[in-house]
Specification:
This protein is an alpha/beta fold. It folds into three domains: 2-264, Metallo-dependent phosphatases (Purple Acid Phosphatase, chain A, domain 2), CATH 3.60.21; 271-323, Double Stranded RNA Binding Domain (2-Layer Sandwich); 336-382, no CATH class. The chain is built from eleven helices and 19 strands. It has helices spanning 21-38, 57-73, 88-92, 95-99, 135-142, 150-164, 278-281, 307-312, 329-342, 346-358, 364-382, and strands spanning 2-6, 14-15, 18-19, 42-46, 78-81, 103-106, 116-120, 123-130, 170-176, 178-179, 199-200, 210-214, 220-222, 224-229, 246-252, 258-264, 271-276, 293-298, 318-323. The strands form five sheets. The chain has a six-stranded mixed beta sheet. A six-stranded mixed beta sheet has the order 7-8-9-12-14-13, with no helix packed on it. A three-stranded parallel beta sheet has the order 17-18-19. Helix 10 (346-358) crosses helix 11 (364-382). The longest helix is centred in the C-terminal third of the chain and has 19 residues, at 364-382. The chain is globular. The model has no long low-confidence stretch (mean pLDDT 89).
Length: 384
């Protein structure tokens, strides 16, 4: 069995007020070429097809064109799930009808759900499509009120698979989650921490032949070679400037052992951080490609007149320009505090705000009200 693992397309993405749709169209054309060359048995997309619950028309059209090419023109089935950026209700439309054409798209958990089973010369391979869900949703579907975290939801789902299916056969988990030990970047939206940690322990997936993950934008393995994030198809922030984007080609033998090949995705315009003095930058040789999306740090101390306007005559796609200055100790303390707050859950952020304003700790009752309100807003947003 041979399949291609990809994820985090984020169609409709806007970076620093720049619409990325044409860059996404370019890279998906390259992806189609890879699919033609590799001739896989299936393409697996592990969530976040869109960047937001109500995607722009151009993003919907691009996804439709890409899936039509894969399924109708190339005859390759596509197995996909919704991620935390997708609207499960919108993506679910027509999903039962599309299955007959070769598009297997799961956006909501269902009781007694069945995997997508594909066959090779050695027998069946079961693909378990597990869309992103909040712990409360998993608790409701599984009728288990002890589920309060992503870890507990994953434990229940894995146990359900073990209880209902033959563990001697080959199983693939397709999910959108944050596994402990994964490396983050700034372009990922933090998963909910309501009721506990958003992290899931990779040891849960020991019984699977392969674990195809989405959510983290850097291609990486988590503790074992067969537990992998494919990464996003493009860079979506300058924190990813040093990433190498790719898709993962997976080949599985009769015993379920897998081998992997990462096929690079080379963008038309890359993300690049450039540092230098204004006059040196104006020569036009500072960037690998003057058309790249650039974050420029100027080293000049003196006053400059319209540096952005002048630099954009040489590098038209500058997204951010800053003057590099030495940080005082106080600045470093502020920066440390900002980074610390970025790791806090919504609940902890509100608790900190409450304590700053009231000068007292928030009560458990009020803390629970905040949790319920945030959970309601997240569910409402995903349902738009």
């Amino acid at each position: 069995m041979k399949f291609i693992h990809t994820a985090d397309w984020h169609l409709g993405k806007i970076v620093n007020s720049v619409h990325m749709t044409e860059d996404q169209r370019w890279i998906l054309a390259k992806f189609i070429e890879i699919v033609k060359t590799e001739a896989p048995d299936a393409v697996v997309i592990a969530g976040d097809l869109y960047d937001r619950s109500i995607p722009p028309k151009q993003a919907v059209e691009l996804l439709n064109e890409t899936l039509t090419t894969l399924i109708n023109d190339l005859g390759i089935p596509v197995l996909a799930i919704s991620g935390n950026h997708d609207s499960p209700d919108r993506l679910q439309f027509g999903s039962e009808l599309f299955r007959r054409q070769g598009l297997f798209l799961d956006t909501k958990l269902k009781p007694n759900r069945q995997p997508v089973t594909l066959y090779d010369t050695h027998g069946p391979v079961h693909f378990h499509l597990i869309p992103y869900v909040e712990p409360a949703e998993a608790a409701s579907v599984l009728e288990d009120d002890t589920i309060h975290s992503h870890q507990q939801a994953a434990e229940a789902l894995v146990q359900d698979i073990k209880d209902r299916f033959n563990e001697e056969e080959r199983h693939v988990w397709v999910g959108h989650a944050f596994l402990a030990g994964g490396m983050e970047s700034e372009s990922e939206e933090r998963l909910s921490m309501i009721g506990g940690s958003p992290y899931v322990d990779a040891a849960l997936y020991d019984g699977f032949s392969y674990v195809a993950l989405g959510h983290l934008h850097q291609s990486q393995r988590i503790t074992r070679d067969y537990i992998r994030y494919s990464g996003s198809i493009l860079k979506y922030s300058f924190s990813e400037a040093n990433h190498k984007k790719s898709v993962t080609v997976v080949e599985m033998d009769e015993s379920g052992d897998t081998t992997f090949t990462k096929v690079p995705l080379v963008p038309e315009r890359d993300f690049e951080i450039v540092e230098g003095f204004f006059e040196d930058l104006m020569v036009g040789e500072a960037a690998g490609n003057p058309e790249n999306y650039l974050h420029i740090r100027l080293l000049d101390d003196g006053q400059l007149i319209d540096p952005m306007g002048k630099l954009r005559q040489v590098y038209p796609n500058i997204l951010h320009l800053e003057r590099r200055r030495s940080l005082t100790y106080a600045n470093l303390e502020d920066l440390h505090e900002v980074k610390k707050r970025q790791t806090l859950s919504y609940q902890d952020l509100f608790r900190s705000f409450y304590e700053d304003i009231k000068g007292d700790e928030i009560s458990e009752h009020r803390s629970r009200l905040v949790e319920d309100a945030v959970q309601h807003l997240k569910q409402e947003d995903r349902g738009r």
